[in-house]
Design goal:
Length: about 290
C-alpha cells in the first residue's frame, strides 16, 4: 500500500524538463511538469486533433480525394439515374391511367375497349392498343343492359327523361328495402327496414310543404323539389323541420320511428316520390 502511494505521488511530483545547446553548453528552455500533467496534455492534444479532423471532413470535400469514397460527380450521377427511374415509373402509371380512362369512355359510348400491352423495343413506354374480343359474360351483361330488366338502359333513359336530366337522388336512410313499388297492390312507394332512430335526410333540395303528426303512419313530411318532384317520408318519430322551411340535399328531416310504429308488413320507414302528380318508383331515381 505504501509503495502504491509513493508511485502515485511520483506521478504528480513536478520534474524539470529542459533543452540545452551542447555546443555552447547552456540551457535554452526548461519547464517544470509532472508525469500526470504531461499525460493529460497529450490526451487533450489528441482530442483537439480528432475534433479538428471531424470538422474538416464534415465541412470540406476532403473525402473525394481518398479512394473508396464517392466523388461529387458520382453522387450527382446516381441522383440523376434515380430521378430518371422515378420519371419513367410515373410515365408508365400515367399511360395506364389514360388507357383506363379511354376504355371507360369507349364502353360508355358502346364501342369495344382496348388492352394495354407495353412494348420493350427501347426504354420509351409504348402502348399496343389491341382490341379486346367480347367474352360470354360481356355478351350476357349487354343483353341485360339492353333488355327490360331493373338495370336496363331503357329504364335509365326513361328515368332521365322524367327527371329532367336528374338521374339519381340521394338515399334518405340506410337500410334494406323490404317492400317494393307496386301499382297492382296500390303501394306507391318503397318500404325500408332501417334501425330505430336512424337519421332520415332529404333526397334533394326543396321546400317543406306539409308536416302531419299523429297519424297511423307516424309523422309524415312532404317536400316539394324542382322539376315537379315531390317526396313523402312516412313513419318518422321525430321531425326537425317545419312547414315552409327550405332544405338542402342530405339535410336531416327527422329520425326513424321505433319498432312499435311499424312491423314487417308496415316497414319502419316509407318513401314515396311523385312527379307531375303521378307516383313513380323511387328505385329508378335512387341507389339504395
Amino acid at each position: 500500500m505504501k509503495k502504491l502511494l509513493k508511485s502515485i505521488k511520483r506521478l504528480f511530483r513536478k520534474k524539470r524538463f529542459s533543452m540545452s545547446d551542447p555546443i555552447l553548453l547552456q540551457e535554452d528552455w526548461s519547464v517544470h511538469i509532472s508525469p500526470a500533467g504531461l499525460l493529460a496534455s497529450l490526451v487533450a492534444f489528441c482530442l483537439f486533433l480528432f475534433l479538428l479532423a471531424m470538422l474538416f471532413v464534415a465541412y470540406t470535400p476532403v473525402l473525394d480525394i481518398f479512394p473508396g469514397y464517392r466523388t461529387s460527380a458520382e453522387r450527382t450521377h446516381n441522383e440523376l439515374v434515380e430521378s430518371v427511374m422515378r420519371i419513367d415509373s410515373m410515365e408508365r402509371r400515367m399511360n395506364e391511367m389514360l388507357t383506363y380512362n379511354e376504355n371507360i369512355a369507349m364502353i360508355m359510348e358502346g364501342r369495344t375497349p382496348v388492352v394495354r400491352t407495353p412494348l420493350s423495343d427501347d426504354d420509351t413506354v409504348k402502348v399496343d392498343k389491341t382490341l379486346i374480343p367480347p367474352s360470354e359474360f360481356d355478351s350476357l351483361l349487354r343483353l341485360q343492359m339492353e333488355g327490360d330488366g331493373d338495370y336496363s338502359l331503357a329504364r335509365t333513359l326513361q328515368s332521365r327523361e322524367q327527371g329532367g336530366g336528374r338521374l339519381i337522388f340521394a338515399s334518405p336512410v340506410e337500410g334494406i328495402i323490404t317492400r317494393h313499388f307496386s301499382r297492382d297492390d296500390n303501394y306507391l312507394g318503397v318500404g325500408i327496414q332501417s334501425s330505430p332512430n336512424a337519421p332520415v335526410t332529404s333526397i334533394d333540395d326543396g321546400t317543406i310543404v306539409d308536416v302531419v303528426t299523429g297519424g297511423e303512419s307516424g309523422t309524415v313530411v312532404t317536400v316539394q323539389h324542382f322539376n315537379g318532384f315531390v317526396s313523402i317520408y312516412r313513419n318518422l318519430a321525430q321531425v326537425l323541420v317545419a312547414k315552409g322551411q327550405s332544405v338542402k340535399s342530405r339535410q336531416v328531416l327527422g329520425y326513424n320511428a321505433m319498432p312499435e310504429v311499424g312491423d314487417k308488413t308496415n316497414p319502419l320507414f316509407e318513401l314515396e316520390i311523385w312527379n307531375e302528380g303521378k307516383a313513380v318508383d323511387p328505385e329508378i331515381y335512387i341507389v339504395f
